[in-house]
Amino acid sequence: MTNNTESYEMKLLWPSAPGEFRDEIVNFWLKHGALPQKDQADARLSEVAMLALDSSGAIAAASSIFSHHYPPLGHAFYFFRCFVHPDHRRAGLAVRLINEVYDHLDIRFKKGSDPSIIGMIAAAENPMFNREHNEAIWPRSGFVFVGYNARGQQVRVRYFSGARIASKL
Hints:
With about 170 residues, the protein is of the alpha+beta class. The protein has helices at about 20-30, 40-45, 95-110, 125-130, and strands at about 10, 50-55, 60-70, 75-85, 115-125, 145-150, 155-160.
């Protein structure tokens, strides 16, 4: 394992299909328990945003996104999910993926793509991560705490540059 994320190749797949990585992504999720069943993994393939590949070209981490209207904030966001291979945790891959996916989506937003989706949202699913990363604003990604979900996980959001909220008045 390395602590230098620069040694990983980032492969942007979204909004295209995962193509040549299709079977490898499904096997990655199933082998490491990210998803319990093949049909769930197959269904998520269209949501794959970016992969982190190790020096041998194997998947070290995979992120996915989907459009999600978040009722407490009254707007649509891209919901970000990420799974990092156990051997590559602590390498900073989750932070690199969330930042690079955000940057890609922010550029799309500024160009007028999907203007109703005003940012990215994520839930911190890892209990240890929830305990250790309790800053109101995550310093390495700029994601802001907006509350807890029904499972008690931190919910974080980062708006796209120039995003506007709708008036409720």
